[in-house]
Amino acid sequence: MTARAVVPPVACVGEPRLTAGFAEFGRLDLRAHEMVHGPISPMEPSHLLRLAEGIQLKGKGGAGFPFARKLRAVLESCERQDLPPVVVVNATEGEPASWKDKVILTRAPHLILDGAALAAFALDAEEIVLCVADDLVGRDSLMEALGERRMPVPTSVVTVPHRFISGEGGALVNGINGLPHIPPGTKKRSSDSGVSNLPTLLSNAETYSQLAVAARLGPYEYAALGTDDEPGTVLLSVTGAAKRHAVVECAAGTPLREILELCEVPDGPGILTGGYHGKWITREAAEKAEVSRKGLAAVGGTLGAGIIVPLANDTCPLGEAAQVVRYLAGESAGQCGPCKRGLPDLARAVDLAVSGSAPVEVVRAAAGDVKGRGACSHPDGTSRFALSAMEVFADDLKKHTTGEGCGRRVKGMMGLPGAPDPDPQKLVLDWSRCDGHGLCAHVVPDFIRLDQNGYPAFPPTPVPTWLREGASKAVKVCPELALRLTKA
């Protein structure tokens, strides 16, 4: 199967912009791209700044930082340090549920290159670096597009590990610089020192594509779609329980229910908005929501990275959420306490709450321990996701506190990478043998703790695959042979 074949279909509500020409050409080579979008001219720094400010362009990777502020910060840093900048395009899209940047890579790569070229010309940049994930989706398309045109400065394509944290700005800069591809230990601005220690403009693929569209249309025509606060269009990755998985382009302010109807989303207990660092909303809230940062925030959601993952009624929503928290804990860079120890503790707390073995306050406490304390935003985003699930699925949580659960099995609708665990296993303790030596808790502290009496305590849920090796070691070191792994 080719890289293009795995990308989901594209749909549009209203006038297409980023997806213009897809129906006629499929993938737009340079000739088709120029036929659909027309010519583009370089801009001086002041003109590009006015354009970015005029269309209120914000980053489309999740954080929503104003692009004009990034641009101005790089310009000021270059002048202050008397150094040339580097332009970096983040097309890694490491979140499993997100596909929008891959759609642009595989079908409209010249829009990305146009936006990067505009920024590079305005900044008089040293080079352009295009970053894609090592799953290689879209890389061949991007290389083909580069072969069809001349860029204003030397341009390279860099592959980075296809991991959740790969798209974090500091991790991306580290990887390009040949360092371990993890966030730096301290937060620093790439606009001051990024790639090769030069001022660096870093934004995601859709952001540069939107800039290219706006440069052709101008701020007034660009703002003909969207809202006063958020002009233009939005790309959404819709997966989960939707019968039609798709990347959908729509004007900001479009009712979310139109997107759900288009993708044939059935009734369900909740919808994840913004991605794995996002928030859950109820189906009732979704009926009132608009697709925009302001519109989704008004109902308790978030636009984030443009991800919409609805759940169906026949799956356990808390179990689905618990799987994601375990995955996010496993995606930690493992270099700071809130990630290395705090996220596994949060995953354990969620497992305990879902199994009915602990109250929701345990989850709130574990989330509070990591919030605002990490080297990057990963702990904050993970705690936000977990707390949102506890709130939106509160009625289900009450059923789980009885120990009987909601009666629904976890179907795996969250788009997590890899196949479901073919052989789920859980730990079982023979209380007639256990003498409370505590060795097991020292071997795998992320899953086994000692209770107030010094005896091992752990969730009755399956052992996460990334902790399976540690659990096996715990079984082997038990001097009384009280601990064993059994089929879940």
Automatic annotation (TrEMBL):
InterPro entries: ComplexI_51kDa_subunit, Nuo51_FMN-bd, Nuo51_FMN-bd_sf, Nuop51_4Fe4S-bd, Nuop51_4Fe4S-bd_sf. Its cofactor is [4Fe-4S] cluster; FMN. Gene3D superfamilies: 3.10.20.600, 3.30.70.20, NADH-ubiquinone oxidoreductase 51kDa subunit, NADH-ubiquinone oxidoreductase 51kDa subunit, iron-sulphur binding domain. Residues 321-400 form the NADH-ubiquinone oxidoreductase 51kDa subunit iron-sulphur binding domain. One of its GO terms (molecular function) is 4 iron, 4 sulfur cluster binding. Residues 56-211 form the NADH-ubiquinone oxidoreductase 51kDa subunit FMN-binding domain. It comes from the Bacteria. One of its GO terms (biological process) is cellular respiration. Pfam families: Complex1_51K (PF01512), Fer4_15 (PF13459), NADH_4Fe-4S (PF10589). Keywords: 4Fe-4S, Flavoprotein, FMN, Iron, Iron-sulfur, Metal-binding. Belongs to the complex I 51 kDa subunit family. This is NADH-quinone oxidoreductase subunit I. It comes from Micromonospora craniellae. The lineage of its organism: Bacteria, Bacillati, Actinomycetota, Actinomycetes, Micromonosporales.
